[in-house]
Amino acid sequence: MYYIGIDGGGTKTVAVLGTSKGHILAYRRTGATNPNRAGLDTCLARLHELLTHLKEHHPTAYAHVQSIYCGIAGGSSSSYQQAITASIRPILPEHSTITVHHDGIAALYSATLGRPGIIHISGTGSVTYALDALGNEHRLGGWGYLLGDEGSGFAIGRSAIRAALTHNERKSPLQKLILQHFSTDAIENVIPAVYQENGRDAVAKLCPYVFQAYEEGDVMAKQILMDTANGIAVQLASLMSKVHNAEDWTIVLAGGVMNQPAIVSMIKHTLSQKASSWSILTPTVPPVIGALIAAIQPYENVTKAIVTNALHLLNQDTDSM
User: Where is each ATPase BadF/BadG/BcrA/BcrD type domain found (predicted)?
Assistant: First the structure.
């Protein structure tokens, strides 16, 4: 049988057509499909683009697709799920099952290969999500930067600007990096850039400077990262206390922010004071393979061979797939 996995985010979306063993037959990448950011019409158009490519590249396999799993950032709304399902239903085989969900499960499965666990994703935005052994789902955050993206690149960047504005008399490494980034000599000149149309992304781009300043011994940067780690650890511990069978949890830390060893180390240290019996994993395959696993799991067993096969094929020239 054949399956389709789609990982849709706020900057890019990837789709694969493959088998339960991770043999990737077709691959396609396009722009953002988060309906809250790109808009629903753009989201639907790009999903059609992806599926059309998969069909054209491997029509025989496409005609026998058993299941498609769409992990879409912002896709937790039932209205979005219904709209996406209704839109792509006519261009899929009649027998194919369609699942549309947020991107948390795909990211989780990219590390656990289909097993339950807790994941914290920190990119431009953030979310903490748990799936227990009974299939119950729980989440904290993920409501967007206006309502709560704790631990995200945006939140870290915002804290950096706030600290620089509050302690304007200091010329700390962090403040100097922010001023250099915006090509100005006064921190107040940063404010207009923050309130532009792309202000969210402008703020999130400051996140790497916080880690750089931390490595240079900046006190404000250290405090920002410690506060961030504590907030993430609190969310993880909160979910561990609420969900079924939380005695021995697998925790996945994913997203660009979690590529920084300093924040991972701080989270581990803080979490050890709040909870016990947990282990941390990092993703072994891209989230789109996690989406493929989610499509496969209701029908076939998922084996570790999917990791070897998927990575081998995805490391090749995907433009020809």
Answer: 4-294
